[in-house]
TrEMBL record:
Protein name: Aldehyde dehydrogenase family protein
One Pfam family this sequence matches: Aldedh
Gene3D superfamilies: Aldehyde Dehydrogenase, Chain A, domain 2
Entry-linked PANTHER family: ALDEHYDE DEHYDROGENASE
Species: Peribacillus frigoritolerans
Annotated Aldehyde dehydrogenase domain residues: 1-146
The keyword Oxidoreductase is assigned to this record: yes
One Gene Ontology MF term: lactaldehyde dehydrogenase (NAD+) activity
UniProt key word NADP: no
Keywords recorded for this protein, A-Z: Oxidoreductase
Family: Belongs to the aldehyde dehydrogenase family.
């Protein structure tokens, strides 16, 4: 991870989830700034690994009975950076792009997908504005109208 401090933070969130009833089915160990990819089950909505932006190789598996419930659970957060959905159903993919309230809806790839030529950024409490070359230039430019009447 970016630093040992952040790896420790993510490890603490994993341990907190364990204390609250989650099970680690893969990974969960840290050595210095390296955190093993981690898969959690039996998580609850109030656990930090679920309701905060963990920014670590941590996945929480949350079952659902129908796609409406899955979309509701996904949208039931104050964050909204990106979301990934795997499907071969183009109608579902288009529906997800409309109904999921995130800065990016990534179909058939993980939510960390990024193409620097495209805008990258979230909605809700996942930041303001977008990143990417076009947006960086725009943010660092003071536009000015100059009118010369001769």
């Amino acid at each position: 991870m970016i630093s040992e401090k952040e790896a420790r933070r993510a490890e603490e969130w994993i341990q907190e989830a364990r204390r609250l009833g989650a099970k680690v089915v893969y990974g969960g160990k840290r050595r210095d700034s390296i955190l093993e990819p981690t898969i959690l089950i039996d998580v609850k909505p109030e656990m930090k690994v679920v309701c905060q932006e963990v920014f670590a190789p941590v996945i929480s598996i949350i079952p659902f009975d129908n796609i409406e419930e899955a979309f509701r659970q996904a949208n039931d957060t104050k964050f909204g950076l990106q979301v990934g959905l795997f499907t071969s159903d183009i109608t579902l993919a288009m529906r997800a792009s409309q109904e999921l309230h995130f800065g990016g809806v990534i179909i058939n790839d993980v939510s960390t997908y990024r193409a620097d030529i495209m805008p990258y950024g979230g909605v809700k409490d996942s930041g303001i504005g977008k990143e990417g070359p076009h947006y960086a230039v725009q943010e660092m430019t003071d536009e000015k109208l100059v009118v010369i009447n001769l």
